[in-house]
Amino acid sequence: QVQVVESGGGLVQAGGSLRLSCAASGSWSTINTMGWYRQAPGRQRELVATQTSGGTTNYADSVKGRFTISRDNAKNTVYLQMNSLKPEDTAVYYCRYTDYRNAVWGQGTQVTVSS
């Protein structure tokens, strides 16, 4: 079984930056996908960015050019560098880990961007 733990959320002014981290532990596979989703109040959870263990990335159009996902495969940790943050980026950000037998969500970390 795999567990993931996020860190790095917080309160930031518009235009600022935050970096989220998510570490997977347990029986994780070297072939996997890790990524970030977010859910704002009253809205459905949506994809932010994902990256496979092979390096392929996928971004939501709304964050392209502002957010960067990266990984440390040796630590099975994924990062989300968020720059030029906007109030509409305010949400709970969830880490997700998937491999051939696991699909796991983290507990979420709050990101609040003030105008």
What does this structure look like?
- It contains no helices and 11 strands.
- The protein has 115 residues and is mostly beta strands.
- The strands form 2 sheets. Strands 2, 4, 5, 6, 9, 10 and 11 form a 7-stranded mixed beta sheet that branches. Strands 1-3-8-7 form a 4-stranded antiparallel beta sheet, with no helix packed on it.
- The N and C termini lie far apart (41 Å).
Tags for this model:
7-stranded mixed sheet, 57% strand, 115 residues, single chain, mainly beta, globular, 4-stranded antiparallel sheet
Overall 3D form:
globular
Give the class from helix and strand content and strand pairing: mainly beta
Beta-strand content: over 45%
Distance between the termini: 41 Å
Radius of gyration: 13 Å
Spans of 5+ residues with little confidence (pLDDT < 50)? none
Number of helices: 0
What is the number of E strands?
Answer: 11
Spell out the helices and strands N to C: EEEEEEEEEEE
Based on the structure, what is the oligomeric state of the protein chains? Answer: single chain
pLDDT averaged residue by residue: 96
Q: What level of helicity do the residues show?
A: under 10%
Sheet with the most strands, sense and barrel status: 7 strands, mixed
